[in-house]
Amino acid sequence: MKIHYPNGQHPQQAYHASRDLPTPHRSIYAKRGMSLEDEINHSNQYYLARHIAVIHKKPTPIQLVKVDYPKRSAAVIREAYFRRPSTTDYNGIYRGRYIDFDAKETRNRRSFPLKNFHPHQINHMRECVNQGGICFAFIKFTDLDLVYLLPATILFNYWDEADQGGRKSITLTDIQHWGFQIEYQLNPRLPYLKAVDQIIAAEHKGVYHDK
Amino acid sequence: MKIHYPNGQHPQQAYHASRDLPTPHRSIYAKRGMSLEDEINHSNQYYLARHIAVIHKKPTPIQLVKVDYPKRSAAVIREAYFRRPSTTDYNGIYRGRYIDFDAKETRNRRSFPLKNFHPHQINHMRECVNQGGICFAFIKFTDLDLVYLLPATILFNYWDEADQGGRKSITLTDIQHWGFQIEYQLNPRLPYLKAVDQIIAAEHKGVYHDK
C-alpha cells in the first residue's frame, strides 16, 4: 500500500533531502561535516572541562574585502569570502602530545573517496607526523552511522598509492582493519582519546611508524 | 630652522600618525599587533619550509549573520562580526612538543600592561601548560623596537599577583630578567625557537616548573 504523506514525500526521504539542500544554515556553519563537527566539538568541550585534553577547532579562514566602521559600534564585515584552510581543522595537546586531525564525512557505504582530502592537508599532517605529532582523520560513513579514526600514517599509504595510479578510495573493510571504530557514547559523544591512547601504545611498539 | 613639509607634517610624525589611524587596512588585518604578527608569520614560514617546526596563526573567528549564495559563484559573506578568540593566536609543534603562544605589543616604554591579555587566554595557556605544552607570550615594546619571549609560567605569577591587588603591569626590567630577548635577524626575522630550546633545557633542570 502506498501511503500519501501530506507533503508528498516519505518522512525519511524528506529528511535526507533536507540534508542535501544548500540552505544558508547548513552551508554557513557546516559544509558536509556538520554533524560530525558538532560531535567532535562536543567531545572536545567535555575533555577540556575535565582537564583531559585541550583540543579546539580552528576558525574558518575568511578573506575580507569590505568592512564598515559605524561610529560607536563594532566593525561590520560587509563583503568577505570563505578561504580554503591551509592546515587541518583541529589541533591541540593531550598527554603532552601534539594532536592534529581533520574530520570527513561520506555518504558512500563501501569506501571513502580520497578526494575528500586536499593535498595541503595531507602535506600538513606529514609535517606534523615528522615533528612527532599524532595525526589522524575522523571518517564518518553517515548513512551507516559509523565513525572511524584512521591514523595519518595509514592514510598516507593510501594517498601515495592513489597518487601512483592506484585506487582513489579506501574501502570500508580496510578502514575497519587499520582504523579505530569510535562508538557513540553519551558523554563524550565520541570518546576518541581512547583510540589516541592505543595509537600512543602502538607507537611505543613501533607498529604504525614501521609502516 | 623650521622646515615646512608639503602636507604640514614632519614625515616621521606623519608615519606615526598613520599607524594610529583606524584605517580599514590596519584595522582589518592588524589590530595593534600588525607588524609583530607579520614578523612571527614570516618566521613560522621559514621554520615550516625548512621542516624545523609547524606553527601557524589561527584565523580570526567570525560571527556570520548573512551570507548570499549567488548562482555559479562562491558564497559571499554580507554581514559578519569579529569574535573574540577563545584561545591564543598561535600553536603548533616543535621537537615533538606542543607550542602555544600569543603576541602583544605595547607603546609603553617602561612596562607591559597585563590588561593586554584576556582572562580566557591566560586560562587557555594554563590548561596547555598542565598538559605539558610550552606556552609563552611575545611582548613587543614597539617604540623601543624590543621583542621578548616571556614563558607563560612567569606570566601567570604576575597575573595572579595583579589579581590579588598587586601591580597591573610587568616592568620592562622584570621582562628582561625573566624573558628572552629575541633579536631581529634577516631570516627568520624572529629566531624565537632558540629561546624555546632554552625553555626546554630549563624545564629539564626544573627551573621554570619550580616557580
TrEMBL record, chains A, B:
Homology family: Belongs to the RecU family.
Main location: cytoplasm
Feature type site, description Transition state stabilizer: K104
Keywords: Cytoplasm, DNA damage, DNA recombination, DNA repair, Endonuclease, Hydrolase, Magnesium, Metal-binding, Nuclease
SUPFAM superfamilies per UniProt: Restriction endonuclease-like
The reaction(s) this protein catalyses: Endonucleolytic cleavage at a junction such as a reciprocal single-stranded crossover between two homologous DNA duplexes (Holliday junction)
Region entry Disordered, spans: 1-22
Annotated Mg(2+) binding sites: T87, D89, D102, Q121
Enzyme Commission number: 3.1.21.10
Organism of origin: Limosilactobacillus pontis
Compartment(s) of residence: Cytoplasm
UniProt cofactor note: Binds 1 Mg(2+) ion per subunit.
Protein name, as recorded: Holliday junction resolvase RecU
Record function comment: Endonuclease that resolves Holliday junction intermediates in genetic recombination. Cleaves mobile four-strand junctions by introducing symmetrical nicks in paired strands. Promotes annealing of linear ssDNA with homologous dsDNA. Required for DNA repair, homologous recombination and chromosome segregation.
InterPro entries per UniProt: Resolv_RecU, Restrct_endonuc-II-like, tRNA_endonuc-like_dom_sf
Superkingdom as given in the UniProt entry: Bacteria
The protein's required cofactors: Mg(2+)
